[in-house]
Specification:
The complex is a heterodimer of chains A (497) and B (115). Chain A has 23 helices and 2 strands. Chain A is mainly α and 497 residues long. Chain A has a domain of 199 residues. In chain A, strands 1-2 form a two-stranded antiparallel ribbon. Chain A starts with a helix and ends with a helix. By secondary structure, chain B is an all-alpha fold. Chain B has a single domain, classed as Helix Hairpins (Orthogonal Bundle), CATH 1.10.287. Chain B is 62% helix and 0% strand. Chain B has 3 helices and no strands. In chain B, α1 runs antiparallel to α2 and α2 packs antiparallel against α3. Chain B is elongated. The chains are: A mainly alpha (497), B mainly alpha (115). At the A-B interface, α6 and α7 of A face α2 and α3 of B.
């Protein structure tokens, strides 16, 4: 039973993906994708409760016991991320039902969306460093297809950049995994935690460098983020929203795992470096966003800046910092996807992503203003939304150990974020619309499923904000499991079966 | 042998990076292929090379006594080669489509999306 439960988050998207790919020309394919997404969300909620009641769970695939075989491990962090990804998957699927053109659907859009979720969930659940490489590749290959599906000029050009950088970063990851095996003779994360002590720290540092380089390209950290704003605005909007939410966060997740369980010995070198990178990532991202007038590009730059906050939690390397970072990842995934989806609704109504050409939405479509303003204020960190608490935990975590510089930077960047959100508000919602376009706006309408998908993500940030105490307890538990992996090791290596 | 192969990795990386930086679509792909082979060789070499001792438990013995050739890196490379092949196959098609759209081999023209 337990073994099945841990494999189910992978089986559902795999089967859903295959079925909806083969049924891609009939409306049945959409239905299968939606059913699969719903089932995954149900499972995600269940697993989140399950791991809290039963503790960390692991299963050895094909019965090869750890550390020899590949294990799937469900700890609080993994369960949180599985749930988060499933919810975003559902919202994007709902939005895509009417938000994707039939041409792309008949090319297998929903199939690839499910395959990508398959890779994402695999990366969250695996307890093996090389297996993580395989899951990252599953996710990437589906993402290459999703990004270029339809073959528009901008898509192909943006897709090629995305491909090139991600391929290179995978090679670095592969070399890192190979060298790690050479040093320790193991790839199982729990086993590695026990063995890494016996290796000379300078040697582990070389390997840690490979992993940091590879994952910071994938997570779009400073100074390796250029591919992200060059490609994320090119695909159809639901794809862009899905990308904004998940792939970079999978890399952040991997960084959190590897740089707590595995590379914990030299915080003065690696975590200090990560903290510096965090600061620069935040600042460059938010400054890049200020210059943009295209909503999707503006939001893309904000992804980068927000990833800086998450990494700041890792760089602080205290229980509170890590917990704040984890809280931030979950909050950000919902909020960022919601903002992208709102931009898509605005484009549906007014036919443009350019702020100059938008306007009047507050007057004529007040529900859209509500859908926007909640995640926008949350992103900027205004109470009582989730973003406020996410930033609060990080700021307190930073003050606690006297890292005032990074705390100052993070607060300043929050201010700039608010400015950016106000710019969108002023241009797209408040600015009066010319008379002739008002009538076009009044005639335009958006399908209800698209609004429901957006609302799902927009309003969850309120719930996370109101239930921040509970959410933080979860994040704190996840952080402790990372910093003191004795339970993790027991679940994987001893008596876990 | 180890040193020779290590040099080979260096040559492959050097040539690969050179090709990638040439700014031509076709050379870029060839460079990536070489780099991915270099990465595979690194994985192969990292636990050290053992010749003439296959990882098979001899008749009568209970455990495998070192030295023996570690089979796991080879399994890893096999996986990596298959993944690399799939990704490169996709890349070739993508590059072909990019070339169709751009009408040129010059990677600098990719800047078109930033406008």
């Amino acid at each position: 039973m337990k073994d099945l439960l841990l494999v189910l988050p992978l089986l559902l998207p795999l089967l859903g993906g295959l079925l909806s790919f083969f049924l891609r020309r009939s409306p049945l394919g959409d239905g299968v994708a939606l059913a699969s997404a719903l089932a995954q969300l149900g499972l995600g909620v269940f697993l989140l409760g399950y791991v809290q009641v039963k503790g960390i769970q692991s299963t050895a695939l094909s019965g090869w016991p750890a550390p020899f075989g590949i294990v799937l491990v469900l700890d609080t962090f993994a369960a949180l991320m599985v749930f988060t990804a499933a919810l975003v998957g559902l919202a994007v699927t709902l939005y895509s039902l009417r938000g994707i053109d039939p041409g792309r659907k008949s090319l297998g859009y929903f199939g690839f969306l499910q395959f990508m979720l398959f890779g994402v969930q695999g990366a969250f659940l695996t307890g093996d460093v090389f297996n993580l490489y395989v899951w990252l590749e599953v996710m990437l290959l589906s993402s290459f297809v999703l990004l270029t599906l339809g073959g528009e000029r901008a898509q192909l050009l943006g897709g090629f950049k995305y491909f090139a950088l991600n391929f290179l970063s995978s090679l670095f990851y592969l070399m890192g995994a190979g060298l790690l095996y050479g040093l320790t003779g193991s790839l199982n994360l729990a086993d590695l935690h026990l063995r890494i002590d016996q290796v000379e720290p300078t040697r582990t540092s070389v390997v840690a460098g490979f992993f940091l380089l590879a994952l910071s390209i994938k997570a779009a950290l400073f100074p390796l983020f250029f591919w992200l704003p060059a490609s994320y605005h090119t695909p159809p909007l639901p794809v862009a929203a899905f990308f904004a939410a998940l792939p970079t966060k999978v890399a952040v997740y991997a960084l959190f795992r590897l740089f707590t369980v595995l590379f914990y010995q030299e915080p003065e070198l690696w975590h200090r470096l990560i903290l510096w990178i965090a600061g620069f990532t935040m600042v460059t991202g938010v400054l890049g966003a200020l210059a943009q007038m295209e909503v999707r590009r503006l939001l893309s730059f904000h992804i980068i800046s927000q990833i800086g906050y998450m990494i700041m939690g890792l760089g602080l390397f205290t229980p509170l910092g890590i917990a704040g970072g984890i809280f931030y990842i979950v909050h950000h995934i919902f909020v960022k996807a919601a903002l992208f989806l709102v931009a898509g609704l605005a484009q549906r109504l007014l036919g443009s992503f350019h702020l100059e050409e938008l306007g009047g939405l507050y007057r004529f479509r007040p529900y859209l203003a509500l859908l926007f303003v909640v995640p926008a204020l949350s992103l900027a960190g205004v109470p009582p939304f989730s973003g406020f608490f996410a930033k609060l935990f990080l700021v307190v975590g930073g003050m606690e150990i006297g890292e005032y510089a990074i705390v100052g930077v993070s607060l300043l960047v929050g201010l700039f974020t608010l400015m950016s959100m106000m710019k969108i508000w002023r241009e797209a919602f408040w600015k009066p619309l010319p008379q002739e376009r008002q009538e076009a706006l009044l005639r335009a309408s958006v399908p209800r499923t698209m609004v429901v998908g957006t609302a799902l993500l927009s309003f969850i940030t309120v719930f996370i904000g109101l239930g921040a105490g509970y959410g933080f307890a979860l994040a704190e538990r996840a952080a402790w499991e990372l910093l003191d992996p004795s339970d993790y090791i027991k679940a994987v290596l001893g008596g876990g079966r | 042998m180890m040193v020779l192969l290590a040099f080979l990795v260096g040559v492959l990386v050097g040539v690969g990076v050179y090709l990638v930086l040439q700014g031509s679509l076709a050379r870029f792909l060839l460079g990536l292929a070489l780099l991915s082979n270099a990465a595979n060789l690194v994985v192969f070499l990292s636990p050290g090379l053992v010749r003439g001792h296959s990882p098979i438990i001899p008749l009568g013995a209970k455990v495998l006594e070192p030295p023996y050739a570690d089979p796991l890196p080879q399994a890893m490379i096999l996986t990596a080669i298959v993944i690399g092949l799939g990704v490169l196959a996709f890349a070739v098609v993508l590059a072909y489509r990019v070339h169709q759209v751009l009408g040129t081999d010059d990677l600098d023209e990719l800047r078109g999306t930033d406008r």
